[in-house]
Amino acid sequence: MKNKVFSSLVLLVVAPLFSMAVSGQRVFVTDDKIEPGEYRQIRRLELSGEETVQMRAGEEKQLRVLSTVTGRNGMYREVVAPTTWSVHKTDGVAIDGNGKLTVAPSVKHNTKFKVTAKVSIMEAWEKEGFDVKVEQDVVVFDTKLNPLVGVWSQKSLTPCSGEEMEVAGGGLRWLEFRADGTYSAAAAPFETYNDYWGKYTFDAAKGTLALTIDGSNDISDRLRLEGEYSVKADKLTLAGLQLLSKLEGDAPCRIHFSK
User: Fold this and answer.
1) Buried b vs exposed e over 71-99: b needs ≥16 C-beta within 10 Å?
2) 72 shares its domain with 54
3) Coil, strand, or helix at residue 40?
4) Domain's final residue, options 114, 141, 168
5) Distance of alpha carbon 199 from alpha carbon 182, whole angstroms
6) Of 28, 42, 44, 176, most Cβ neighbours within 10 A?
7) Which residues pair with 254 in a beta bridge?
8) Are 141 and 56 in contact (CB under 8 A)?
9) How distant is the alpha carbon of residue 159 from its chain centre?
10) Cα 104 to Cα 118: distance, rounded to the nearest angstrom
């Protein structure tokens, strides 16, 4: 049995509704669990479905070991197995024996560290099993220093000649900026689907924003990926950028989002 079904393991932050947003996809956790006697159901395993878990200072998150669901991209089931948790030495960061990760209020913005889980896999009828060690990258962020982090949905636009108007059922419904410097965008997000994704950089002093495209399902040559941004009271305004893959008519001068 050794290493026949396991390639890697997943550490996932599980939200109360068993769903979460991640870079380039949305991850869903089923209610079912894989317990001893069912380990042969485990197929592809990876780290959390996201390259980097993001947390605020003072926050706690529960990590769990998960397996992908066969035939369902972005779906996972929890693996019930003995697990030893540890965190690479970082002041103000701790993890308990059940995988609850705690970041102290004193931890600074952009602090990065790794969590390690050693998972013991053995079916009840086997004489011996095997251990799998996996790591998860974590980054701590402060919204005051990076106000872009979060999931935004377009609510309105301002034409170059005219007043701000609402976008009814259209626009860019999914624009996620993550603390690790990645983003994803979709006009009609569905499960793991996004139009395109990549990296972003911003200059807080100048209010400028630039995106790159590292992968895509639907893009056009009308995209404009550099411009200006402002965030006020959970309203994000982008000026000079055009992020819709399918745009009818003239590009707006400003697009407005809310969380």
Assistant:
1) eeebbbbbbebebebebeebebbebeeeb
2) yes
3) helix
4) 141
5) 4
6) 176
7) 158, 239
8) yes
9) 32
10) 24
Q: How many CB atoms lie within 10 A of CB 253?
A: 16
CA dihedral 101, 105, 106, 112 (to 10 degrees): 40
pLDDT, tens digit, for every residue of 81-130?
Answer: 999 999 988 899 999 999 999 999 999 999 999 999 999 999 989 888 88
Based on the number of CB atoms within 10 Å of its own CB, is 60 exposed (0-12), middle (13-18) or buried (19 or more)? exposed
pTM, full prediction: 0.83
| Residue range of the domain that includes 160 | 150-258
Q: How confident is the model at residue 10 (pLDDT cuts 50, 70, 90)?
A: low
Using an 8 Å Cβ cutoff, are 176 and 195 in contact?
no
| Averaged confidence pLDDT in the chain | 86
Local structure of residue 126 (DSSP, 8 states): -
CATH number of the structural domain spanning residue 119: 2.60.40
HSE, CB side, 13 Å, CA atoms: give it for residue 92. 16
> Residue 29: what residue type?
V
* 3-state SS record for 238-256: EECCECCCCCCCCCCCEEE
Alpha helices in 6-165 (DSSP H): none
Residues 243, 227: Cα–Cα separation, whole Å: 11
d(CA 122, CA 128): 6
Contact yes or no for 231/213 (Cβ under 8 A): no
Phi first, then psi: give them for residue 112, nearest 5 degrees.
-125, 140
